[in-house]
Amino acid sequence: MELRERRLAQVVRDFMEAFVLARTLGEDLRAGRLSFQTVTRLVGDAEDSALYRLKEECHALFRLDFERPRTEVQAEEFFDLAVGALFHETMKFREGFYLTDRYGPRLQKMMAEGSATGPLADTFWRVVEAGRRRMLESESEAETLFSETRDQLLVLLRQLESSGAVARSLVEDPARAQQVFGLPLAQLLADTYGSAERGYQLAIDSLIDNGHFEEAAAVLDRPDARAAGVTDGALDFARGMASYYAGDSLATVESLSRWSKKGTVSSPAWHQRAARVLLALAKSVELTDPKLAKHASALARDFSP
Length: 305
Known about the structure:
mainly alpha, Four Helix Bundle (Hemerythrin (Met), subunit A), 3 domains, 15 helices, about 80% helix, elongated
């Protein structure tokens, strides 16, 4: 289940990346500044393309699974089909853009110079113009399909069991999440998890449980998380653990000491983790800073069962 949750979170990240890239592509196209490099970042046949990664991940992950509710499976199947359609529609755009961007100007120049004339030049020019029309049609179709696929992703997220990994993918970049889903992050989390506070807490717990202490502290310290009602009870724990892995012994003991004094109800696993870190720290500074070592050892005993 943990692997599945991580892969679902990556699907959400790749979809958001593709959605933003598609919006950038449309804006650049209409402004006459679109580069083929931007197109290939969105769609192509290699891992450096956001839609390619998304398509491959969806095809591998969303297959019939009769152990889960049928409604959830149907939502996954539909999303998988929509992503496949997105990939093929944007590949049509890529082909049309390459034709008009690379061949069109050269042909136009040759025709103006008189070095390309006759039936072949006329037919070639009609092909280029037809490619341009198909390119514009594909961009329009893809824009609509992206919005509707985004809505289907929301349906899917609401039907899934609460996932800290997926919550992390939404929380890590509030501006991007709002751009993609058209909702403030707090409202998006509330719609998905029942409340913004629960969404943030799922993300923070997942970060801490997976050892991403600095990232967890950064989320806990954000105004949007505080406004959602997430308490800072875990902030000192996350900062203390981050300081330990950064090699700052004093900051580790100070932060974990503050966390202990607050008496915040936390997972027993967090207490065990803090105790192990403090004992290791005490041993490492025993000769160089006996006072700090003694403080760390005493604090470790407070955290021990």
